[in-house]
């Protein structure tokens, strides 16, 4: 199996499993990765469209939210995250956000093309070709 998926302690771990090819991404692997992301998206759509409540714990377990914190740590943790984001180049954050939004829907070949364009625009090396 080229994509390994594991759930533990409310975390979804997705690992590439092609060590013989230095974990180079194939179209099939990209489709598997998108399926993992779309699973959370489908749950979110169902909850929104049906108007059902979901607990923070379930939302985290399903991958709908990134993290859960208690009331006592909320403001401190939010400020820490805000500082970290503020210290990051906004063009990089914007490019990542755009790519993530575009990749939840659409053709995988187009997605890989957009990713290569973003790498080029931001001065990175293009992704490895399989």
UniProtKB/TrEMBL annotation:
GO terms for molecular function: catalytic activity. InterPro entries: ClpP/crotonase-like_dom_sf, Enoyl-CoA_hydra/iso. PANTHER family: EG:BACN32G11.4 PROTEIN, ENOYL-COA HYDRATASE. This is Enoyl-CoA hydratase/isomerase family protein. It comes from Rhodoferax sediminis.
């Amino acid at each position: 199996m080229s994509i390994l998926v594991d759930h533990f302690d409310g975390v979804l771990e997705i690992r590439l499993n092609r060590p013989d090819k230095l974990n180079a991404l194939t179209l099939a692997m990209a489709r598997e990765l998108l399926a993992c992301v779309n699973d959370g998206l489908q749950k979110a759509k169902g909850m929104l469209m049906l108007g059902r409540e979901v607990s923070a714990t379930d939302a985290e377990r399903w991958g709908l939210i990134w993290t859960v914190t208690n009331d006592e740590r909320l403001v401190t943790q939010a400020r820490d995250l805000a500082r970290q984001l503020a210290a990051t180049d906004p063009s990089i954050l914007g490019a990542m956000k755009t790519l993530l939004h575009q990749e939840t829907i659409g053709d995988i070949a187009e997605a890989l093309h957009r990713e290569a364009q973003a790498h080029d625009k931001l001065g990175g090396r293009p992704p490895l070709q399989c």
